[in-house]
Design brief:
The chain has 15 helices and six strands. The chain is globular.
């Protein structure tokens, strides 16, 4: 049983790890495409229109791959983890149904959007509206699925009387505190991740160009794109920071054992410090290089140094999350700290020394950190999911109870993630082909 459980968790973890990459670009590219098309319409700039059109082709490919990977995960929910739906299907069935409708909206308007580029029968503003509806469909789909995960962290919208569900409120379940907090924190994170990677790709393109060519019209467009993407990243980063603070307060109130594991806070106490570095020694201590920021955890939890923060001592040992998620948190915060320095540095350089933006070291720096956002998103979801263990539905269904009892999934649990590797490679080759065709197209943006 333990081996099957490990295999099932490997399967789900690897599937979600790959799927989230497709998802974040499937959510962010529609926003960027309609933004650049809007600028193209307002400025009467055909080159910006070509940028939006090129990005929309990649967006379409990623929507397809996202649907394929998402379908596999949906099957896993029913085939590998039937205990979750068996327990809460009456409560969380609505989001699964609505996800289908939002996907239908996205698919229909994406088809209209791609088929009517430069159509003389469709006004440019109507075409832009089709793109807005793609954003509505993709974002709505993201919310309803995120709400299911939020419900698993904080089950609401029902009462259990004599072992039976009563007073079921599907809207309360779908719009729970956890669902809202998770969604509004994850979306800016996706925007930062996708935007930062695109900055890195354009920085790499500029890095490869000869210095004397970086002032050409083609590369002036690249600098313009980087500038707009950095504005997008910076705004999203600010919102991510705000919602991170809200998330910390949510955890302190509703999932205190997860916060305690993230911070290796063993004792319930006031004036709780924030731990940076170190790992658990397995006996209630911390080993390895580390330091503490006095009162910071209490301030994070409720804006007061005298706030009482629940420790791991309030949770039975067999119900505590794995303490190694503290290391994930440290890695994530290190990357975020670097971004806190780099993002303002870009705008300072643009304001005071714009010539620095053409410096090879500056460009190389942006290429080097372009993957940070994706790593931050992945680490964030790992902390969320692993930090809920040993629960599948917190407080009601353990992960072992949710696992199917009728099939041996050990082999598939370790081998099936290879399918995601293949899907990732095929997607990469497809994007490369789009890039190659764009380079060959006369007057293209590449």
């Amino acid at each position: 049983m333990e081996h099957s459980l490990s295999a099932a968790r490997v399967l789900m973890g690897d599937s979600l790890g790959f799927h989230i990459i497709f998802v974040m670009f499937g959510l962010v590219l529609p926003v960027l495409v309609v933004w650049f098309e809007y600028m193209a319409i307002r400025r009467r700039d055909e080159r910006l229109r070509n940028v939006a059109k090129f990005w929309s082709k990649i967006m379409s490919l990623l929507v397809v791959t996202g649907v394929l990977s998402g379908t596999v995960i949906a099957l896993q929910m029913s085939l590998v983890w039937p205990g979750i739906l068996k327990f809460g299907g009456e409560v969380i069935g609505l989001p699964f149904m609505l996800e289908t409708y939002f996907f239908l909206i996205e698919a229909v308007f994406l088809s209209l959007y791609m088929l009517t580029w430069n159509s003389k029968k469709i006004s440019e503003w109507l075409h832009w509206f089709f793109g807005i509806m793609v954003v509505v469909g993709s974002t709505g789909s993201a919310y309803v699925i995120t709400s299911v995960n939020g419900w698993m962290n904080l089950p609401t919208g029902f009462d259990i009387v004599n072992g039976e569900f009563t007073n079921i409120d599907v809207l309360a379940a779908m719009f729970s505190v956890s669902s809202l907090v998770t969604f509004f924190h994850s979306m800016p994170g996706y925007y930062v991740a996708a935007g930062l990677l695109m900055v890195g790709l354009y920085a790499y393109r500029l890095l490869r160009a000869k210095k004397k060519d970086r002032g050409s019209a083609k590369h002036k467009l690249d600098y313009f794109i980087v500038q707009k993407l950095m504005i997008f990243v910076a705004i999203s980063f600010v919102f991510s920071a705000i919602t991170a603070d809200i998330t910390g307060k949510y955890l302190a109130k509703h999932e205190p054992e997860k916060l305690a594991a993230l911070e290796l806070n063993y004792e319930t106490r006031t004036n709780a410090p924030l731990l940076i570095g170190g790992v658990s020694d397995g006996n209630g201590g911390v080993v390895g290089p580390h330091f503490e920021i006095p009162n910071a955890l209490s301030l994070l939890a409720c804006n007061s140094p005298g706030c009482t923060v629940e420790g791991l001592d309030a949770t039975p040992k067999d119900l505590q999350p794995p303490l190694y998620i503290h290391t994930f948190f440290d890695i994530k915060m290190t990357m975020i700290t670097i971004l806190v320095v780099v993002i303002p540095l870009y705008f300072l350089a643009k304001w005071k020394r714009p010539e620095l933006l053409k410096n090879r070291l500056m460009l190389l720096g942006f290429v080097s950190i372009s993957w940070f956002g994706i790593a931050i998103v992945e680490l964030g979801w790992m902390m969320t999911e692993i930090g809920r263990q040993p629960w599948a539905v917190r407080g009601y269904v353990t992960t072992s109870e949710a696992l199917t009892k009728t099939h041996d999934i050990t082999t598939f649990g370790y081998l099936f993630p290879a399918a995601y590797v293949v899907l990732f490679i095929v997607t990469y080759l497809g994007i490369r082909q789009f890039v190659k065709l764009e380079k060959q197209r006369k007057g293209g943006v590449l």
